[in-house]
Structure formats: C-alpha cells, structure tokens
Specification:
By secondary structure, this protein is an alpha/beta fold. It contains eleven helices and nine strands. An eight-stranded mixed β-barrel has the order 1-2-4-5-6-7-8-9, surrounded by four helices. A hairpin with a 5-residue loop joins strand 1 (41-49) and strand 2 (55-66). Helix 3 (87-104) packs parallel to helix 5 and helix 5 (128-139) packs parallel to helix 6 (159-172). It is globular. The structure holds ligand C2E and magnesium ion (MG) (3 copies). Ligand C2E binds next to strand 2, helix 2, helix 3, strand 4 and strand 6.
Amino acid sequence: QVAKNLDGGVQTYLASLESESLRRLGLAADLRRALDRDELEVHYQPKIDLSTGKLVGVECLARWNHPNYGPVSPAEFIPVAGDTGQLGRLTMLVLRQALVAARAWSREDDPMSVAVNLSPKTLADLSFPDRVAAYLAEFEVEPSQLTFEITEDVMVSDRSRLLPNLDRLHELGVQLSVDDFGTGYSSLAYLRRLPVQEVKIDLRFVQGMTTDEGDRAIVRAVLDLARHFSLTVVAEGVESAMTLEELTAIGCDIGQGNYFSHPLPAERFVAWRETLESGHEGGP
Ligand code: C2E
Ligand code: MG
Ligand code: MG
Ligand code: MG
C-alpha cells in the first residue's frame, strides 16, 4: 500500500515535470512566432515622487497574451527567451516601445523618463551599448531619459564583460538602477563600484515594512546607505496608504506600485496621467 502510494506520487511528479517541460517547449516556439508578428506588448507603470505626488517616469514591462494560455508572466517567458536565444529581440522590442513612449509623452520642459529591465545576458552582449546609442538617435530621445534596471545577479555574472558594458552605457548618459535590491548576492561595496544612480528596494521588504520590524529595518538601512552614495531610492510594490505614509515619513524618494496604478497599456496610461494631473490642479 505504502509503496503504491509512493509510486503514485512519483508518477504524478514525473507527469507534472513532463507537462511543465512541454509547456516550456511550446512557449519557446510560440514566443518566436509572437516576436515575428509583433504580438508582445509593453505596459507602463508610473513612478511617483513621494514628496510632490508628481509623476517622474514609467517602468516598461513586457506583456504576452498567449492565444491558448492567456497572459503569461514575464517571470516565465523571459527565462524561456533567454534559453532559446530570443532575449535580444525581445529586449529591443521593449526598448523601441519605451523610446516611442518617452518621445510621445515628453513635454517641452518636462521630459518623460522610461525604465527598461535588462537581463545579465543582454548586458553581456558586446554590441548592446552601440545598439542603444543607435536607437536613442533614431527615436530622438535624450540618453538621460532612459534608465536600465539591472538585478543584483549582474554583480556575480561574467563581470569582465558586464562591467565595461555598464561603463559604456553610463558614458552614453543613460541612467542605471539596481532592481530588486536586497534579494540577491548583493555586496554593498558594489554600489560604490558600479556606475548606478538608483536602487529599487524589492517589494517583499516594502510590503512587509508596516508589520515586520526586520523588513522595516532593511528599508531604513537601504535609504541610509543610498544617501551616503547619493543614490535615488525607489520603493516598488507600494500597495497601501499605510505603506505610502511610512515611506514618506522616512524620506524615500520615489514610489511605484498598485496603490498608484497597475502597469497599464499605453492608452490607459495616458488617461491615468490626465486624471492624476487634473486632481493636482483641483486639489488643495
Ligand atoms: P521587476 O522589474 O521587479 O518589476 C516589478 C514587478 O512587480 C512587475 O511584475 C510589476 O507588475 C509588479 N508590481 C508592481 N507593483 C506591484 C504591487 O503593488 N504589488 C505586487 N504584488 N506587484 C507589483 P511583472 O510585470 O510580472 O514582471 C516581473 C519581472 O519580470 C520584472 O520584475 C522583471 O524582472 C521581469 N521583466 C518584465 N519585463 C521585462 C523585460 O522587458 N525584460 C527583462 N529582461 N525582464 C523583464
Ligand atoms: Mg524592474
Ligand atoms: Mg523589481
Ligand atoms: Mg522583481
């Protein structure tokens, strides 16, 4: 009886492994087709200056609505793209949309900033900085309007290739941000060595800070450290008024999260921005 149960468990496990890798294989082929047909989308999530309530920019997030599976999370399809040699195309697609948005949403004395996520693999591509420079020129966007968000794994990846590329991007004048800060193999010393201007505190600490002493301590420590290095601090995953209040009280610069807005398709973001701005004019 026991053996039978165990066996059943193993079979279920194997079956789930099999369907998982089948899904992955299917996704890889479908992703190729989606890229060919330009079916991936980009959604935009506002970043808000916590001292003024004003919009400071948007993070551009890849979205894929699969014909059979429905929305597939970037947490799932980005690794598939990376394993199947499609990440370069995907990144350039997102970058293109980001630069179109930066240009369309800028105003005379108020340039729109856009942030794009980069995987270490993209950053290790020696031709990447040149392609970024060419895109900036083509879309007529100032380098300072573009931020690349990199995760801490960059610091433990192939640094001999990554660091020169980071330096070249920095020389171009684009901004660099460390994403999901506090979750990886962060060596605090890297913050000083890398040409970064911003850190984004991972949402798990932000979400925990109103109830958990440890999370609150981490958020405060990151703020402290960032001040020493003159870095801008973004709190991601702001979901409640209470979190917002606490972040503002301790002097966090920028907030991003569903409390302000979910990531939105372009047209809906434009409408959201109008509502925000009409609120400001009519406000106290
Ligand atoms: P990330 O760069 O840390 O992006 C923030 C994630 O948090 C997004 O998930 C966003 O939708 C989610 N989020 C924002 N506000 C809230 C909130 O208040 N509560 C909660 N629970 N979540 C919130 P998303 O869009 O699913 O993206 C997941 C990750 O996939 C991103 O994490 C990023 O690492 C990666 N990713 C997305 N687009 C791209 C891309 O174009 N290229 C690369 N290389 N990676 C991407
Ligand atoms: Mg990000
Ligand atoms: Mg993040
Ligand atoms: Mg994340």
